[in-house]
Fold each of these.
Amino acid sequence: MVDNGILIAAIVIILLMFLSLFRVIGGPTVLDRILGGNMIGTKTTAVLLLIGVLYEDLGMFVDIAIAYALLNFIATLGATKFFLRKRNSAEILEAVLDEKAILLDGESSKEESS
């Protein structure tokens, strides 16, 4: 009975991976696509652990899952750094400052109304 629950959980995670695939294919920005790929990698790590439980050899699958998660993390960091480097640093700084200004304007308008 427990095996059926684990199998159902693995199937649900795999279906959620297909939903993440839509973000990878149709993401509005490159960073959304990178995040979608990272989500698929994280779900793959969970599926590897569930497979290890099903085969009753969790030790081997934990090692594989840790190595896969590390590679996924490094690939995500590398891709993010590569694509952010292409953007102009001034654009990024301006966007961050504009966002902080909007937040500060919202807080000052709340203080004025009270």
Amino acid sequence: MDILDASGFQSVTRYAPVRIALLGMVRAFFGLLVAGMGGLALWVASAGEMTPKQPGDMPAWWMVLVGAGLSLVGLMILAGGLGRVLSAFASDCYFKAGREGIAVRLPRQRSFGRFSIEEHRMKWEDIEQITPRTIRVNMIPVAWELQIRQYGGKEITIKRYYFSASVKRMSEELAAIAARTA
């Protein structure tokens, strides 16, 4: 029996590996498109199609620079997407709460497609505030996250795509569990 279950912890929500894998596949596809555009720019520059014919034309070296930059960025996005697909199948990820506090285990993206498993355990008396956040770009919601701020300034951010429940539902569930333990 898991020590978390033995100490009265219950699951707040389920880990969502399919959502993470699909998000990684979309990111990898986008990375392939960007790298493909960079490769096309390099091909056009090397084929001699970009030789300046008039004084205001772009020099050929500029297209090589743009193509190399796009290819590099595309490969980085592709590696991040493939890393996210791999991290989706990390074992024993959870989001639990109980009498003691909160326990979270989830993968975190690192550079070049790598990931690591982060585990956080917090006692209720150490938690200052639990805040659901909506990230907006030009007033359009693009991402959701749950921020858990501890006394002393440490913040833990849990992105929406890691778990199946909405951020609002997770915060309500945490508030209900905290109220039962008080």
Amino acid sequence: MTREELAVFDGQDGCPAYIAVNGTIYGVSASPRWRDGDHEGAHQAGRDLTEEIKSAPHVRAVIERFPVSGRFEDPVAQPSRNRILPLLTLAIAIVLVMFWVVLTK
């Protein structure tokens, strides 16, 4: 499920409430603490809460008790190979130049 698809499941207007944490989507609709997709005024369903959960007063295991509803795929958060390859090429070039400088002294 993408970020846009997850946003539909915000718990509003009869929609199920889903949240994403560390690439897993959890259904939180059955919890009274997620009424209408709102978790006690602190978190909203339909979003990736991976970063927010780090400062939550409970451990991640609490979230992991909810039923898994799917996988969250966020292309923004995952570096693409198109961005990694130029950086890797640059790093190799720098290392090769350093070796050349050392060997030609």
